[in-house]
Amino acid sequence: MAKVILSLEGSVIREMNLEKERVTIGRKPQNDIQIENLAVSSEHARIITILNDSFLEDLGSTNGTLVNGNPIKKHILQNNDVIEIGKYILKYVSDPSAGQTSAEDFERTMVLRMPNAAQRTAAPERTDTMTRMVAEPPARAAAAPPPAAAGGQQAHIQILSGPGVGRELALIKNLTTLGKPGVQVAVITKRPQGYFITHVEGVNYPILNGATLDAQAHALKNHDLVEIAGVKMEFFFK
């Protein structure tokens, strides 16, 4: 299990296992990791953990969040990454044998165009790690043949609305990101129990069969209808 080690000027303050799907970091007491320092925003950042992978997201903090000395908005954490929040250090430690995902292990990812011009201009494109993965899928993953799912079936997503209507994506890898960076992003994960959808970014949550989801992962069934960033799609096996 991955964990973070909080320290200040070389002295360890706290270690925390990332047992929860979402761990918040900030100055307010309701945060999972509270850092009482004026340089830290009330709700500064959060870590989303899905399977063996963790995403760090800055929540629009005043002074920003650094990973290995570089400012980030969203970042896929790797073993021994050093997160800087104010004068505090959070070291991310994961078990390398757990099969942590690298950027190249991500599924070919579909960027969902917004169905109208007003939505397309709702937020500027970002150039952080997650945006690059969404906009520039790895060539090796794109060329890989889809592995057969249980019963010889392969999971797919098909776009049902918007400019990309009819477009289809085979869910090849364990993690597939869908959405519009800066507006709304969700991830579909392949687990031993099946496929699950989890909200990653955006004020609004994905809609599944007409019902708005919450922050937890939700299992997907054959022919489920999903709406992300104003675009409707169908999850199915074939």
Keywords:
238 residues; mainly beta; six-stranded antiparallel sheet; 3 helices; 22 strands; 7% helix; 42% strand; elongated
In short:
The protein is mainly beta and 238 residues long. The chain has three helices and 22 strands.
Description:
With 238 residues, the chain is mostly beta strands. It contains three helices and 22 strands. The protein has helices at 117-120, 129-135, 139-143, and strands at 3-8, 11-17, 22-26, 33-34, 45-50, 53-58, 65-67, 70-72, 74-76, 82-85, 88-93, 110-111, 155-159, 168-170, 175-180, 184-191, 194-201, 207-208, 211-212, 218-219, 224-228, 231-237. The strands form four sheets. Strands 2-1-11-10-7-8 form a six-stranded antiparallel sheet, with no helix packed on it. Strands 14-13-22-21-18-19 form a six-stranded antiparallel sheet, with no helix packed on it. It has a five-stranded mixed sheet with strand order 4-3-5-6-9. Strand 5 and strand 6 form a beta hairpin. The chain starts with a strand and ends with a strand. The relative contact order is 0.14.
